[in-house]
Give the backbone structure.
Amino acid sequence: MIAILGISHKTGPVSVRELYTFTDEDVSEFYVRLKSEKHFRGLAVLSTCNRQEIYFDTDYQTAEECFDFITNALSKFRTYSPNHREYFYFFTGIDTAEHLFKVVSGVDSMIIGEDQIVMQTKNAFRFCFNNGFMSQVLTRMFNKAFEAANRVRTETEISHGAASVSSAAVEMCFKLCDNILDKSILIIGAGQTGELTLQNFTKKGCTKITLCNRTFEKAETIARHYNVSAIRIKQLPEVINDYDIVLAATSSKTYLVTYSMITHDNRERIFIDISVPRNIDEKISTVNNIRLIAIDDLRHHINEVSLRRHQAVAMAEQIISEVKNDFAQWLSSRSLLPVILKIQEKFSATNSTELEGFLKINGIKDDKLISLYGKHITEKIARLLIKNVKACTSNGRNAEYTELISKLFDI
């Protein structure tokens, strides 16, 4: 049975979520521990800033057994506390797949339709698959999740437009600027929002970017990762007028860019302040050819985009339902595999034994034609029986009939 134990931004605070984060090394160590369990089949772990989820495959047949199995393992690895039970969600069977499909499609994200989760899930899948951690069922489930995500993003508007402040700010710059790839950009602030803004600019091809931060070492490290420049905060007054676009995203409680720093040279420039409190003096907007955009100017755009994305969720869920049904059909058909193999094995064995006795009793030492006919009629009857078994069990979905047929063939 496939199952998931998870905690996310919807169910638990960061103070609890951070206790259950997994690095690649942690996943490898956790797999080694689970591998020693006789009922264990496979594992995949998705660990991001917003969610920690353990997908696993076991021989257990009940939800209670699966839950006890994974929580016992987690308690030995991460000192899982029963006090945290309220923050976790747990699904088994096809519900596990449906949850994963929603996660990868962006339906379950903090920002509906965000696409970062797709790459994060692919990286987690690739790591677990390449290291042999995943079972056949888990592999199939994750591949179907990527299929669902691709369809949702191409057939709906769930990921259209900028739905975060940082992405909206970048999108606004592209709307307002001609030849933006040639523009020089200064980002003030190397926190999460600042780095996301930097990431959004670089994704769109901007390269003339400088990152500024109070802690220069942090700015330098991030800038090196994105192959851009870094400067110290004290250099701002000297260089602020060298840039075509200036964006501030810090937690400073005072202005970092003041009116007195700005030269009145009539050059067209854009200043964007997405900080709360504001970091850019609003008087700058009075300087000729300077456009100042504050966070409230972006919210209307974000709200419109968010509304369109929420409207796309219903269509996305319809697509997810279709892919889920397809996976459910494949999953249920697997339950018939032991039955089918046993039918083929029993008919083949019976044919071999009876044919040998028939030839011996009748004094026939070698008759290839009789042997070929015996094999032919055996396979034909087996195929007919297998066809009927699939039909009466609804391709494995009717568990009671599958169990009855299993007993019939002594499986």
The longest strand covers residues 40-47. The radius of gyration is 30 Å. The longest helix spans residues 295-334.
